[in-house]
Amino acid sequence: MLQAIALAKEGMLGGNGGPFGCVIVKDGKIVGQGSNMVLTTKDPTAHAEVVAIREACKNLDNFQLDGCEVYTSCEPCPMCLGAIFWARPAKVYYACTKEDAANAGFDDHFIYQEIEVNPADRQIPMVSFLREESLKAFELWKEKGDKELY
Ligand SMILES: [Zn+2]
Fold first, then answer.
1. Separation CA 21–CA 37 (nearest Å)
2. 145: β partners
């Protein structure tokens, strides 16, 4: 966790992004780490957890973080929470809370609220169309015999 917090400070002081760091450990060894890189990469998804998950998965040559522990300097935002669940590590440790992040100007509470709102009524309206056409991709997936499940 101290390494995650050090990455948070270093990344922020280096102008890479906000003060967030993350380290992923497997069998007592660091397999991936990162800090928030939103500013330097111009990538709004480059949160510390996502950066670290990408590095860990690349190093492990796997799309899952089986048996891994995630150490993040702050409680994950909704995007990172989703990414963590897709990556399926064994456990997540976090230092600061989302309330601490909000006090520092990183308030993600509105995203939690938006999840509850009808898609078309969200602040960014989300409208379904061409559903029948897109369902064909799911049909192909269901019929695909050699698919790798994840
Ligand atoms: Zn995040």
1. 10
2. none
* Chain centre distance of CA 103: 21
Q: Tell me how far the alpha carbon of residue 127 lies from the centroid of ligand 1, in angstroms.
A: 25
Q: Are 69 and 89 spatial neighbours (Cβ–Cβ below 8 Å)? A: yes
**Distance in angstroms (rounded) separating the CA atoms of residues 8 and 17:** 9
114 flagged as catalytic? no
Q: From the CA of 64, how far away is ligand 1's center (Å)?
A: 18
Ligand 1 centroid–CA 83 distance in Å is: 9
Round to whole Å and give the CA distance between 105 and 55. 27
What is the pTM for the complete model shown? 0.93
Catalytic residue among 10, 49, 114, 132: 49
Confirm if 117 and 148 have CB atoms less than 8 A apart.
Answer: no
Is the pLDDT at 150 greater than 90? The verdict is no
If you average pLDDT over residues 34-59, what whole number do you get? 98
Report the separation in Å between the CA atom of 47 and the middle of ligand 1, taken as the mean of its atom positions.
Answer: 5
Please tell me what DSSP assigns to residue 89.
-
Mean pLDDT of 60-64: 97
What is the DSSP annotation of 30-51? EEEEEE--HHHHT-TT--HHHH
